[in-house]
Amino acid sequence: MDCLFCKIAAGEIPARKLYEDDQVVAFHDIAPQAPVHFLVIPKKHVRTLTDLTEDDKALVGHIAYTAQRLAMAQGCDEGFRVVMNCNEQGGQTVYHIHMHVLGQRQMHWPPG
Ligand code: AMP
Ligand code: ZN
Question: How far apart are the CA of 94 and the centre of ligand 1, in A?
């Protein structure tokens, strides 16, 4: 399968990894939008959020839990933002689900 994030998870393409376990990998975004900007991905290939099944619910919980643990470890104790873009209108560009974690600057809402 020709998937960028599967290749990063497998170590076939280099990334600045922050964390890895049997289910997830976290690495710094290549084009950071904040002083802290990393991605948490499942090792399992899931194309987009609407492809999730009942069996994936615990995995998404693990992604969110990993995101907050790493955000705190990156000094985001005053707050941070998580984003998951879904499909074209949601702004998704890489079709392997990922949770963005952004921090160490003031975030605004709505994002535009
Ligand atoms: P999205 O637009 O939500 O699909 O986000 C994809 C993210 O992946 C963007 O923020 C990109 O900067 C990031 N990205 C693309 N290629 C790489 C890469 N090789 N290493 C790290 N981050 C990447
Ligand atoms: Zn993939």
Answer: 7
